[in-house]
Amino acid sequence: MRSPLFRRLWIATLISNFGTLIQSVGAAWLMTQLVSASDMVAFVQAATALPVMLLSVPAGAVADITDRRHVMLAALLVMVTVSVLITTLSFLQLITPWSLLGLTFLLGCGSALYGPAWQASVGEQVPVRLLPSAVALNALGFNIARTVGPALGGAIVAAAGAAAAFLINACSYLVLIFVLIFWRRTLLPTSLPPESIGAAIATGVRYARLSLPIRTVLERATLFGFGAGGLWATLPLIARDLLGGGPLTYGTLLGGFGAGAVLAALGIATLRRAYGYNRVATAASVTFAFAAALAGLSHWMVLTLPAAALAGASWLLSFSTFNVVVQVSSPRWVLGRTLALYQSAAFGGAAVGAWVWGLGAEHIGLSTSLVASSVVLLLSAGWVGRHRPLVAHGADELGPLATASGGPGLNVPQAAGPIVITVEYRVAEANVAAFLHAAHALGRTRRRDGARRWSMMQDLDEPTRFVERYQALTWLDHLRQWQRATLADQSVRDGVLALHEGPAPPVVHHLWAREPDDAEPSPPSGPD
User: Fold this and answer.
1) Are both 356 and 471 inside the same structural domain?
2) Which of 21, 255, 300, 467 is the most buried (most CB within 10 A)?
3) Looking at the predicted structure, is the pLDDT value of residue 289 above 70?
4) Cα–Cα distance between 47 and 112 in angstroms, integer?
């Protein structure tokens, strides 16, 4: 909170979160008044989560290749416009179940565009060492709003109707827009043009696929979101059908959910230090499973409210832990995309879970559906905790290895290509096995950063000679690969170089597939 920018954005985001939660109560309860079908009520949460699953990845690519502040402002303008429209239709009593779902979906689209840019900008607001605390504090802010906001939303809906809740949400965005307008970001210097959106998406997906910490988070977030989405989506039905209450009961349950999350956020740093990322996330999944089963079987507020609080604490512990692992395991150049992939996995799992368990509530009963969701969550928690443990880099290891203006010292046209890079090593026979193990770890980092067709080949005529070979589509792609290397990659490179023998370093060649009309490259401007 000593950072003025972080403090202003945190307060403005807190206000916006209040509006969002008040709106969500209004939308969910309005749907219960428009229709009686359980699946349509659950679809309100699915309509909020589905855009995040569908649009987060393109939004993350946009956040990485353009000014993130501009992306956030554009998303907020979309959400203000949709909020004003849904408010107007509600006041005029022209809203229908499907128009409510459609407008809720559009609000979700704005959130999907805003989320990756906002989360990726946290590292620009505080020093790297405070990043986990900043992520936890943002989660705390949301859950402070969730503690009070839903109950307040329930009171507003009961007193003035859903339209009033929608109007408050539209107004809540204005403070955040004001703060962002006056934020002047410090952009990283670069001599390279931005990637296209399609290329940026492909690069982000490749990075996540080849990064073990990120891929593990994606798998676990999907499974947790699927299992936990049932309770979150059916809370209005729990309030109406199991507890026999109204919008105030629903708001109270959401408030209990948020209160549990606030308490968890206050203790999350201590829990992580004591037990680590993996144990915290696994225990949170087991606890959520217990809470979902209790909420599904209870008909008394005295049991259901503590169950909601336990679920809120578990939800916060899981998703905050996943978020931190992504933040500290991604370099800045790809952070928007990895966060977007994480959001897509988490909300995609939650959206599918909301749909599946909502249909279950309609066809096999609400209690049975929630118990089934808890069993699935419990089984998946046991499996991922053992076979997919969470791991993370240190945030200080992900700074760029190269300077922003540096690069291979050949002045080749950026569109030239394809480019083939070879590196020749000399390895003693006794070290071959260790060298190949280290070399394939290096190959993984090269492919993660964009290299294609990587291979390590041994010379049959000279068995001590090994040639590493990989490609880039163009010289520009090779320059991007060079700039993406991080400090963490240096230890991988050092492991390979330590097994190279000879007085001279490995010999590097850059090969260009020349055409007769290609321009001549300029002389080298510096070392490779």
Assistant:
1) no
2) 21
3) yes
4) 12
Q: What is the pTM of this model?
A: 0.76
Q: How far apart are CA 238 and CA 304, in angstroms?
A: 9
pLDDT exceeds cutoff 80 at 524: no
One domain for residues 412 and 312: no
The predicted-structure confidence for 406-434, as pLDDT tens digits, reads as follows: 456 667 788 887 899 999 999 999 999 99
Sign of CA dihedral 4, 10, 11, 16: positive
- How many domains is the chain built from? 2
How big is the CA angle at 445 (ends 439 and 448), to the nearest 5 degrees? 140
Cβ 411 vs Cβ 491: under 8 Å = no
Q: What is the DSSP letter of 462?
A: S
**Separation of alpha carbons 57 and 53, rounded Å:** 8
∠ CA 165-167-172, rounded to 5°: 95
Those residues with Cβ within 8 angstroms of residue 57's Cβ, 6 or more apart along the chain or in another chain: 201, 204, 205, 337, 340, 341, 344
Please check whether residues 371 and 410 belong to one and the same domain: no
Distance CA 465, CA 422 (A): 12
Q: What is the CATH number of the domain that holds 42?
A: 1.20.1250.20
Tens digits of per-residue pLDDT, 253-268? 878 887 888 888 888 8
One domain for residues 375 and 405: no
